[in-house]
Amino acid sequence: MDGQPYADGPEVTHASVWHQIQREAAEAAAAEPLLGALIHAGLLHHRTFPAALGYRFSLKLASGEMSEQILREIADDAHRREPALAMAAEADLRAVYERDPACHRLMQPMLFFKGFQALQAYRIGHWLWDHGRRDMAYFVQMRCSEVFGVDIHPAARIGTGVMIDHAHSIVIGETAVVGNDVSMLHSVTLGGTGKEDGDRHPKIGDGVLIGAGAKVLGNITVGRCSRIAAGSVVLTDVPPCKTVAGVPARIVGDAGCSAPSDMMNQILGLEGIV
């Protein structure tokens, strides 16, 4: 990373990522002229990474109830006040690029991957929530659910370097906590177990891999670097560095590697055969 400051913002460390995205975008526009307008509007037109993020947020979430201009002003204000938003977005972008075999260029998640886009929209909603703008945060949540099929409560706390692959039917509840470098696939639920109030949602440790369709329910802890097999229903705490599977889920072995969320290995070994 070159650490050069943007002309219209505070010093950041993601300038080289933005330069690479713009190089990829120029090549893509030349190779596919029919997408030229989309690529120029979404990437090449913008001087900075945060500006492009704000544009995409406003374009995707705008509706007859809230204009693109207003949403763009909200996003730009959030990024101006909180540079960590763009830093988190860069970490998420790198996570997708490094872990998803379908991602061959950094520009792809920015333009085409709804998991990345929904996560950045959540980050704006969470910023609004933390600054007391609760109703606007709920609006962002509603539009994310309608547009992306991803329903993340704005009060949930999500770390950086997170990949949500495919991202269809993701639900993350109000008091859920997701650590850094977590990977999850489609149809994952981090939910409650009933009508109880208060702290009622899962706490997911760093480096955890959550397979497609897994349901993690209640105020339980999933230890760092664990694996949750696809389709599992997790109702009790999971120790660090373990693999759980089944309905209800039980421990079927060790995680099998030091970084499950990076390796993305969802095949159970012999220890998982019953």
Main features:
single chain, 274 residues, alpha/beta, serine acetyltransferase, domain 1, UDP N-Acetylglucosamine Acyltransferase, domain 1, 2 domains, six-stranded mixed β-sheet, five-stranded parallel β-sheet, disordered C terminus
CATH superfamily of the largest domain: serine acetyltransferase, domain 1
Largest sheet: 6 strands, mixed
Q: How many individual β-strands? A: 15
Average of per-residue pLDDT values:
92
**What is the count of DSSP helices, taking H or I runs of 4+ residues?**
9
Shape: globular
| Major β-sheet strand ordering | 3-6-9-12-14-15
What is the CA-based Rg, rounded?
19 Å
CATH fold description of the largest domain: serine acetyltransferase, domain 1
CATH class of the largest domain: Mainly Alpha
At CATH level 2, the architecture of the largest domain is Orthogonal Bundle
**Strand percent estimate:** 5-15%
Total separate domains = 2
What is the H/E string? HHHHHHHHEEEEEEEEEEEEEEEH
The computed structural class is: alpha/beta
Low-confidence stretches: 1-13, 270-274
Helix share bin:
40-55%
How widely separated are the two ends? 48 Å
Concise account of the structure shown:
This protein is an alpha/beta fold. It contains nine helices and 15 strands.
Could you describe the 3D structure shown?
The structure is a single chain. By secondary structure, the chain is α/β, with parallel strands linked by helices. The protein has two domains: 17-148, Orthogonal Bundle (serine acetyltransferase, domain 1), CATH 1.10.3130; 156-269, Hexapeptide repeat proteins (UDP N-Acetylglucosamine Acyltransferase, domain 1, 3 Solenoid). It is 41% helix and 14% strand. A six-stranded mixed β-sheet has the order 3-6-9-12-14-15. A five-stranded parallel β-sheet has the order 1-4-7-10-13. The protein is globular, with a radius of gyration of 19 Å. The protein starts with 14 loop residues before the first helix and ends in an 11-residue tail after the last helix. Mean pLDDT is 92; it is low at 1-13 and 270-274.
